[in-house]
Amino acid sequence: AALLALSRPLGDGTRQLEFAVPDAHCAACIRSIEVALMQLPQVTSARVNLTSRRVRVTFDPERGFPAQFAPAIRQSGYHTYVLEPAERTGGDPVMGELLRALAVAGFAAANIMLFSVSIWSGADVATRDLFHWISAAIALPAVAYSGRIFFRSAWRALRVGRTNMDVPISIGVILATALSLFETIQSGEHAYFDASTSLLFFLLIGRTLDHLMRERARSAITNLARLQPRGATRIHPDGQREYLRLDEVTPGMVLELKAGERVPVDATVMTEGATFDYSIISGETAPQTIVVGGEVVAGANNLGGVVGLRASRASTDSFLARMAAMMEAAEHAKTGPRRIADAAARIYAPVVHTIAIATLLGWGVVTGDWHAALLNAVAVLIITCPCALALAVPIVHVVAAGRLFERGILMKDGAALERAAEVGTVAFDKTGTLTAGRPSVVESRAEDEHANAVAASLASGSNHPLSRALAAHLGGIELVDVTIREVSGRGIEAKIDDVTWRLGSREWCGLEGDGESALTEVWLVANGTFMAWYRLSDVARPSARNAVNELSGMGIATRLVSGDQKGPVAAIASTVGISFAEAALRPEQKLQAVSASNTMMVGDGINDAPALRAAHVSMAPTTAADIGRSAADFVYAGDDLAAVPFVIQIARRAAQLVSQNLFLAIGYNAIAVPLAILGLVTPLVAAVAMSSSSLIVVANALRLRLDNGARRARKNHRSLADPLAQGM
Fold it and tell me: How far is residue 26's CA from residue 78's CA, in Å, rounded to a whole number?
């Protein structure tokens, strides 16, 4: 149904689909793919376009389903995924325009250079004038076509009364071309059509490579979008099936997921033994079995048979949507260095125009050679373009966001990355953060069964891990109809027949004691009178001690801040190697504990939200409560606490690269501008230098992907480009 919805009717009962075949590169590839498809009875024609690496399939839906196309292509040895109509017609329009403009500029520059060589070799006046006119005939349309990328951008800025970095480039190219045309009309000795077209050629090389590198850095966002299914199969109460677009799926709908398909929205599992590939969450490819009632997130791949799901969130609020939004936010965040770079870019245009005019007038008045004066002014306009300065900060943040994403870590913005580089202390919550978050009742005592029934009723109304564990332990007891009030970090309260019941900490229940037990205790009282207690055990995460040791090796102090009692807090602190632990903290006390100095807070509960928001920087797992995830600056997938030191390592490395990029960009202009003013740089050399500075800055940012462990992280995290094909 999904493929039929994407196909295009041809009017004679047949339909057409297009698939990408990125691995195809020769005539043998074409034959292999076409033969594999033509063997299917429903296919009437299959044509591979080697230039675009796409295969167009025409088929009769009455003779078979299009779901067989992708497996047939894969069986012939090629990766594939279906192309949506927008992808079929659009592709990457920016790259297409850049490549066409680059080709035209390169062709014009090469041919004009041949005529220039003849002129430099000593051609007579008549031949020189002829070659100048031929060069003009080639250069003028080439400059108009290839330069429109810069001209259009400059005109949009000037039309609204502002300038951008393409304004001086456009002025420089137009001046060089106009000066050459004037010389040609006047039968002058020198024309600079070769410089104008070569200038555009090198500028476009820089712009094209810059676009390629940016897209490579943003590939995590692009590939993330491909993981989003296009729709879902809904099962109505009467058993009828209906295929819905993704935006039509609403919470509560029952969906059917076939083997190999990806989960369309966050949902709860309704089928026993459902197994999913959760590599999008944890970076690990080991299958995970989700029990009935467990939650599975959008993008997970169904590895078993047919699975029933109940949608729990709309597609706009799914795990994939939140990840994409956070990745986009990371690219556009306004950090301190980026604000400096943006401010410098804003004042660039008036400053450089002033310098260019001063260069023109200075050379013209002092030497009387207005040709040389104009060329020097053009060189100033071009060489001072602040592309490198504008790229210095955001490109590092984009690369860092992609690197973190490969480890299942999402950051909300670049400012958070900047703050993470300054962290001196990491404060951990206990339950669900340092521990597995799956406590179980190991001891209990109740005055009567009614007390157990009330405890089960109160616990069932809370999502706290201790409440869920208690509700599961008392699952066979008939519940009491109550309306609860939950006090974050303390417990639950309800009134039944004028009796006030409280379930929670010893302090919350008003009972005396030292809380020295290594087990977590939950108490139940009625009007302050003891009715029951339950002792729960939770184990430390296997990765917790290694993460604490790694942080210590980086010179970062660690501490444990928990609302639990002193005994279990001390036990966990000893297990993971944290020497400073604080217990029985209320949410406001946690907030106060982490608000001093450059502290990173790592927590997952509702009661951690104020501390997560107040800390210098914060992290929460994807399993955290919604309010906790919203408050955190970084969200990490899975249960591996190695994500914490990894974030700080990447942040520190990114801070170094940002400083290096700013130094490179500012240093380039400090050297280049005086050289251009002194007439030591031609417009052509200025174009090469300006493009090179931008590429150096981008290449320096990409070094973040080459640090130790990057290849291992990418290897562990399954490619995000292929799963769509696998899902078909």
Answer: 12
Is residue 562 predicted with pLDDT exceeding 70?
Answer: yes
User: Residue 452: helix, strand or coil by DSSP?
Assistant: helix
**Out of 76-80, 534-538, 589-593, 606-610, least confident range:** 606-610
CB atoms within 10 A of CB 332: 12
Neighbours of 592 (CB within 10 A): 15
DSSP conformational letter for 219 = H
CB 524 within 8 A of CB 504: no
- Distance between CA atoms of residues 638 and 377, nearest Å: 58
Angle between helices 219-226 and 319-332 (to 10 degrees): 160
Distance in angstroms (rounded) separating the CA atoms of residues 700 and 706: 10
Structure tokens at 440: 């179980």
**What's the pLDDT at 559?**
92
pLDDT tens for each residue of 164-186: 667 777 877 888 788 788 878 88
Active site residues: 429
Tell me the C-alpha distance between 383 and 672, whole Å: 7
CA distance 443 to 190: 96
Res. 600: pLDDT tops 90: yes
Structure tokens, 723: 């799963």
Rounded Cα–Cα distance for residues 405 and 720 (Å): 11
β-strands 581-582, 557-561 pairing: parallel
Hey, is 588 helix, strand or coil? helix
Place of tokens 């973190």: 404
Q: Which of 134-143, 650-659, 703-712 has the lowest mean pLDDT?
A: 703-712
Beta bridge partners of 618: 601
DSSP per-residue string spanning 317-382: GSHHHHHHHHHHHHHH---HHHHHHHHHHHHHHHHHHHHHHHHHHHHHHHH--HHHHHHHHHHHHH
Give the C-alpha distances (Å, rounded to integers) separating 450 from 455, 475, 478, 480, 499. 9, 14, 10, 9, 13
Name which of 727, 724, 525 is nearest 83 in CA terms: 724
The tokens of 437 are what? Answer: 């978050």
Residue 236 region by backbone torsions, left for phi larger than 0, else alpha for psi between -120 and 50, else beta: beta
Q: Which amino acid is at 47?
A: R
Between β-strands 634-636 and 617-621, what pairing exists: parallel, antiparallel or unpaired?
parallel
Side by side, the strands of the sheet bearing 267-269 are 241-245, 231-235, 254-257, 307-311, 267-269, 295-296
What is the pTM assigned to this prediction?
A: 0.58
pLDDT of residue 93: 72
pLDDT in tens, 129-148: 888 899 889 989 999 999 88
Residue 423: what pLDDT? 92
Query: Which pLDDT score is estimated for 330?
Result: 46
Quick one: 91 exposed, middle or buried, by C-beta within 10 A (0-12, 13-18, 19+)?
middle
Residue 378 token pair: 């053009």
Residue with tokens 């456009």: 170
- What does DSSP say about strands 617-621 and 599-602: parallel, antiparallel, or unpaired? parallel
CB atoms within 10 A of CB 192: 28
